[in-house]
């Protein structure tokens, strides 16, 4: 589920401890529109960290990096995947990007590598006075 983190007071009334997993997306595995990237970056680890620091809220931040690549069985599979991300008539750009980045896999025919960076924030509401 997705919850925005701006209203920490709401969460402090509902739970003792909040564990927030936040994307550190500054890049993606496929090209996206500038508008979509702005939305993605709006809820970033950098912004949550800034908010917590401004409110002088104690937290623990654990950065993680995981492989979130995509497998493909054939060229048609790549085409379907590219179409699923085509929101602004950018199919050709997305498809060509994938074809240029895809590698031959050991156990699958094609693999699009993508290392996803996230941060886990642990906030103990028992120590807060919001």
UniProtKB/TrEMBL annotation:
- Please give the organism: Terrisporobacter muris
Name this polypeptide is given: Uncharacterized protein
The beginning of the lineage is: Bacteria, Bacillati, Bacillota, Clostridia, Peptostreptococcales
Per the record, the domain of life is: Bacteria
């Amino acid at each position: 589920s997705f919850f925005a983190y701006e209203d920490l007071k709401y969460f402090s009334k509902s739970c003792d401890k909040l564990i927030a997993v936040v994307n550190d997306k500054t890049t993606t595995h496929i090209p996206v529109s500038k508008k979509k990237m702005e939305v993605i970056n709006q809820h970033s680890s950098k912004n949550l960290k800034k908010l917590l620091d401004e409110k002088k809220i104690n937290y623990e931040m654990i950065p993680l990096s995981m492989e979130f690549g995509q497998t493909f069985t054939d060229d048609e599979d790549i085409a379907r995947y590219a179409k699923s991300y085509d929101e602004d008539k950018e199919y050709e750009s997305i498809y060509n990007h994938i074809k240029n980045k895809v590698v031959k896999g050991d156990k699958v025919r094609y693999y699009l590598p993508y290392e996803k960076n996230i941060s886990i924030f642990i906030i103990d509401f028992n120590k807060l006075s919001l």
